Amino acid sequence: MREQTAINLPKTKKRILVADDEASMRELLGMVLESEGYSVVGVPTGRDAVQILCQERGAFDLVIQDLKMPGLDGTELLRWIKSEVPDVPVIVITAFSSWDSAVEAMRLGAYDYIRKPFDTDTIRSVVGRALERRSAILASGEGRNEDARGFEMIGNDPLIQAVFRMIKLIAPTDSTVLIQGASGTGKEIVARTIHQRSHRRDRPFLPVNCSAFTESLLESELFGHVKGAFTGAIEHKQGLFRAAHGGTLFLDEVADMSLTTQVKILRVLEERKISPVGSTELHPIDVRIIAATNKAMEEEVQAKNFREDLFYRLNVIPLYLPALRDRKDDIPLLAGHFLAKYSRQMKKEVCKISDRARQALFDYDWPGNVRELENIIQRHVALCEGDAITSLSISTRPQSAVVAVPQADYTLIPPGGVSLEEKLESYERSYLKEALKLTGGNLTTAAKLLGMTYRSIRYRVKKLRVKETVA
Ligand SMILES: Nc1ncnc2c1ncn2[C@@H]1O[C@H](COP(=O)(O)OP(=O)(O)OP(=O)(O)O)[C@@H](O)[C@H]1O
Ligand SMILES: [Mg+2]
After folding, report:
1. Residues 95-144: pLDDT tens digits?
2. How is the beta sheet containing 15-19 ordered, strand by strand?
3. 278: exposed, middle or buried (C-beta count within 10 Å: 0-12, 13-18, 19+)?
4. Residue in 371, 376, 379, 450 to alter for ligand 1 test, most ligand atoms within 8 A of Cβ
5. Structural domains in the chain, sorted by start
6. Are 374 and 451 in contact (CB under 8 A)?
7. Model's pTM, two decimal places?
8. Could you tell me if 102 and 121 are in contact, meaning their C-beta atoms sit under 8 angstroms apart?
């Protein structure tokens, strides 16, 4: 714990503005944050906050504000900050019961929210993350890049907070990381976050899905090949290990690699050199390896599906991602985050989730984890006609309400018989069309919505002659 405090301590004093009409709240926040080494200024109204932010432009690194204040109220203050000093992150304090206002605050661009009553550890960690994020943005010159927000990981549960601490510790090193977690728990976003926080951030991050290729294709994808190495090798290919030079190679679904490829990867990790398929030349490589799997690797090793020596090479730093059902307290935060994200993306004003819908989110056990929650919120934002999601239909398969599937026949097979292939194709076409419509024709996102790989959606779209861009 001591060590962690040392890591969290800011090098130069960061300045935090606290806007809250309750003096006791200003005092409490001031005490907690000053003991962390920050410099804190407290003001009682939104107007005072605007005044000091104008007078001392660039002097504050963070604003913590109440949502309910007399005069210029919290929402207006937040709007003002986001339009006038957008680089300053804002953490909003809301009443425990006021979930909708928290969601609204996220939609307006708040970095995070804290619900009253809160414990001081929550304050410390949310503030730490907000400031760290700001430093990363300033350092990378990302500015107001919307895409960067999409990569932001959130979560207050101790299980995910432990992962965040680990990321922070290991990112600057060059160590190999093995991320294990069920489907949709955030393995790829963790890998990207590690890369973005490493000294390799300006070099490529290249993901490769090891289960999407046959053995020989995967090898040529990774190591490259020389012209004429095999039938079809009409061009020289560099391979991902060399393309990722100076950056990070993300070996996704690593457990699905064949035993032969495993031997080759092991050799690369030991020698830090590769030779393209069909060549004996050796090329030195400089890449960090991050691997991920949704299988229990220890079991795969026991069952001899995965080489023990490679497992130890990859598992230098193990990271286990918790299932969403084991951190249900994060559901409102994540739901609010996705609501804000898709509402902004689809240019809609959906900012609320009804009590009934919220209850449904809690009651469900989320086999598809964060990805499933994200997909469900995305679909409901797309369907929502007002400013609130009032009821929620959760299904592991795409919703029939969303997808215009043909009417089902009551007697499944009419007297004259039916062409099953045609029926299936027509179903498939409807799903593909709807997914492309929802994602504005983005094949990668559409593939995710339908639980398929990019390669298979591309193939199906072509085969069924579905228009890729749907007006
Ligand atoms: N803590 C988080 N905060 C915000 N978004 C998250 C978080 N965890 C996951 N996500 C989002 O959930 C979706 C799924 O995450 P990701 O693709 O990283 O999961 P995965 O474990 O690689 O899934 P799969 O096993 O299906 O490949 C992504 O859109 C990601 O941005
Ligand atoms: Mg993944």
Report:
1. 756 667 777 777 778 888 888 888 888 889 889 888 887 776 666 544 43
2. 39-43, 15-19, 62-66, 90-95, 112-116
3. middle
4. 371
5. 2-143 (3.40.50.2300), 160-320 (3.40.50.300), 324-389 (1.10.8.60), 420-463 (1.10.10)
6. no
7. 0.60
8. no
